[in-house]
Amino acid sequence: MSRAQISALVFGVGGFGALVAATASNEWKVTTRASSVITATWVYQGLWMNCAGNALGSFHCRPHFTIFKVEGYIQACRGLMIAAVSLGFFGSIFALFGMKCTKVGGSDKAKAKIACLAGIVFILSGLCSMTGCSLYANKITTEFFDPLFVEQKYELGAALFIGWAGASLCIIGGVIFCFSISDNNKAPRMGYTYNGATSIMSSRTKYHGGEDFKTTNPSKQFDKNAYV
């Protein structure tokens, strides 16, 4: 098994898990620490829910019940993250089929093509996640540094950093998978031919047969015809 493919699979699957965690998280943006200290409340917002908590320990989440009232950039980020997770899932499946250690996928050339396809899918998954997280972060930072924005200001949440990390892992794994084609071409699978236990058995038979012949007829070893 190629070490490059193992590393690529670890990066790709790890990145896929990070993308799933980032998509499901509710901490895409959080209230600023200055306002949290004053009001003793914390507000977390994600792609699917808005959550709020206070110093007393109470915590409540409210999902977005309708799509039409959600802001456009949130809908765009939803689509990009769903696409990233879907591509990461299919990339993981293709990666398993393209591994040399698996018995499915056909010949080495077919496995190399499948591994390259898995790499491309992982790269697309990482780019979708990177775009979605960056779009969301750009909206937060624009509102935060806008002096005319008087509503509640937020900071970057932990889900954005998890999404960026997962996207980086997917892109790295995809690049390694794409470069693993050269390893498959340089180190083709060796073929071994089975030549026959029949030849070995026949040689043993001849050897034992000759030995039996010598033991049963020792006088013929010195027969006069042997010297002619």
From TrEMBL:
Gene Ontology CC, one term: plasma membrane
Family membership: Belongs to the claudin family.
Protein name (database record): Claudin
PROSITE patterns registered for this protein in UniProt: CLAUDIN
Major site of localization recorded for this protein: other
Pfam family, one: PMP22_Claudin
Annotated transmembrane regions: 80-102, 114-137, 157-181
Cellular location(s): Cell junction, Tight junction; Cell membrane
Taxonomic lineage: Eukaryota, Metazoa, Chordata, Craniata, Vertebrata
GO molecular function: structural molecule activity
Superkingdom per UniProt: Eukaryota
Keyword tags: Cell junction, Cell membrane, Membrane, Tight junction, Transmembrane, Transmembrane helix
Gene: CLDN10
Function: Claudins function as major constituents of the tight junction complexes that regulate the permeability of epithelia.
InterPro entries listed in its UniProt record: Claudin, Claudin10, Claudin_CS, PMP22/EMP/MP20/Claudin
Membrane topology: Multi-pass membrane protein
Organism annotation: Lipotes vexillifer (Yangtze river dolphin)
